[in-house]
Amino acid sequence: MNSVEEYYEMQFAQRGFLPDPENHDYCELGSTWKLSDHIGAGVFWFYGQQNLFDIKIHDFYFHQDTVMNFSWPECLSITQYDSISGEELSPYRRLEAGSVKSFVGGYRPYKVLIHKKIPIRCVGIEIMPAYYEECLQNKYPDEYANPLEAFASVGQTMNFPEMTFLLREVQNYRGNGISARLFYESKVAQAVSLVVEWSRKHTQRQEAKSRLTAEDMKDLENITLYLNDHCMQNISLDEIVKISFIGARRLQIIFKEYHGCTITEYIQQRRMSQAETLLAKTDLPIGQIAKVVGYSNASRLAELFRKSTGMLPGEYRKMAQRK
């Protein structure tokens, strides 16, 4: 048993997962863990290679809204979400289906709220210091650069199709033996390469962004509070500009620096969160919910809701209200 496996086996046990050796839905090279029936349903598949890297596939849900607070080992991770409903709590950010998300572990606790009954379906790769500080450096001594900053730069994005394709290949793979080991090793190396290249392409754009001043921060906090209170209404950019006393172009730039998304995306995220609550906790018709959260018809809500959660509103309601 290696250190990566030991760490996650302890985490599995603490969070109600039990070994499920008879489950062969995923590659036999890894191990499958089943979530205890009184906590939720579904499985977690895991493959670790010594202390170098691991690959994880989630496909489970909780019976109740669940706050998770845990510390990841020192690692760099990249994950693609097919289905998710929840929020990171420190700092606050909505988790979205269809996104690719990076995380740098080992520096601060990770706090997240996962909404009940909605499946967490995702696949991710984690690399450990022994991989990126020793293995890569030994292989490429003249070209090596620590990929930590590259991973950190990805954050959460909808615009990383190459990584989405790679991680789905990993998710769908069903080989065994040495061919499986070689497959996973190659995909881990490819994932690191994609992250480094993605970061390189975005560095120039990021450097061009202005630094936020203390005055910018204060203005953005006020604008955010206003949007939180009025996001269900039709708010034009002109209205927000008048309220903020900031030029439209600059406002759009600093808002995205502050929140990591555009104003329109931020408003949509708030509306989707409200729609989730109404679908899960009321019997209001979906068309009426669409109007409550700011859309003229159910089809527009359905389009954006599916993009956000990976499910149509009716599917979400059925799962969220399931007894």
Explained architecture:
The structure is a single chain. The protein is built from twelve helices and twelve strands. An eight-stranded antiparallel sheet has the order 1-2-3-4-11-6-9-12, sandwiched between helices. A four-stranded antiparallel sheet has the order 5-10-7-8, with no helix packed on it. The model has no long low-confidence stretch (mean pLDDT 87). The longest helix is centred in the middle third of the chain and has 32 residues, at 177-208. By secondary structure, the chain is α+β, with helices and mostly antiparallel strands. It has helices at residues 3-14, 129-139, 148-154, 161-172, 177-208, 214-230, 237-244, 248-259, 263-281, 286-292, 298-309, 313-320, and strands at residues 17-19, 31-35, 40-49, 53-62, 66-70, 75-83, 86-89, 92-95, 100-105, 110-114, 120-127, 156-157. Helix 4 (161-172) packs antiparallel against helix 5 (177-208) and helix 9 (263-281) crosses helix 11.
Order of helices and strands: HEEEEEEEEEEEHHEHHHHHHHHH
The percent range for strand residues is: 15-25%
Task: Report on the biggest sheet.
Answer: 8 strands, antiparallel
Shape assignment = globular
Tally of individual helices = 12
Give unreliable regions as ranges. none
Based on secondary structure, the structural category is alpha+beta
How many DSSP-defined strands? 12
* Overall pLDDT confidence: 87
What is the CA-based Rg, rounded? 21 Å
Q: Helix fraction?
A: 40-55%
Strand order of the biggest β-sheet: 1-2-3-4-11-6-9-12
Distance between the termini: 39 Å
